[in-house]
């Protein structure tokens, strides 16, 4: 049995669009981090990614699968069970994502200040 994902894995106050470094779409990097320790079901991913709709999570997972980062496995049986797992290519993203996370954490206050200053400027 694997450990459940921490519902507080991602700070709900932290806007993921604040980080200027992107991997795919807004959710791509967070999904990859959720899959870091092994395969997960769709419903498991929704726990720490509570701000994402089912439609957007499905679209992001399909994009990750299309790009070769994730493999989708449907297990046979009376109850349909689907899991998503990182491929070796997807695993290769873990290090750059960790570096981007560390950079954003180090520059968090400057990023917030810049966003607030920009929001106050007339366009």
From TrEMBL:
Q: Where is the HTH hxlR-type domain?
A: 14-112
- Which is a Pfam family this sequence falls into? HxlR
Please tell me whether the keyword NADP is annotated for this protein.
Answer: no
> Where does the record place a coiled coil?
none
The record ties this protein, via InterPro entries, to:
HTH_HxlR, WH-like_DNA-bd_sf, WH_DNA-bd_sf
| Highest taxon in the source lineage | Bacteria
Per UniProt, the keywords (alphabetical) are:
DNA-binding, Transcription, Transcription regulation
This chain belongs to which protein, by name?
A: Winged helix-turn-helix transcriptional regulator
Specify the species: Microtetraspora malaysiensis
């Amino acid at each position: 049995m694997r450990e459940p994902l921490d519902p507080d894995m991602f700070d709900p106050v932290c806007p993921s669009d604040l980080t200027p470094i992107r991997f795919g779409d807004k959710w791509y990097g967070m999904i990859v981090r959720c899959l870091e320790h092994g395969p997960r079901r769709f419903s498991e991913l929704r726990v720490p990614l509570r701000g994402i709709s089912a439609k957007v999570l499905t679209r992001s997972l399909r994009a990750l699968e299309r790009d070769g980062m994730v493999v989708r496995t449907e297990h046979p049986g009376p109850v349909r069970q689907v899991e998503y797992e990182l491929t070796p290519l997807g695993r290769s993203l873990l290090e750059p994502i960790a570096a981007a996370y560390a950079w954003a954490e180090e520059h968090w206050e400057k990023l917030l200040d810049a966003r607030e200053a920009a929001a106050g400027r007339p366009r």
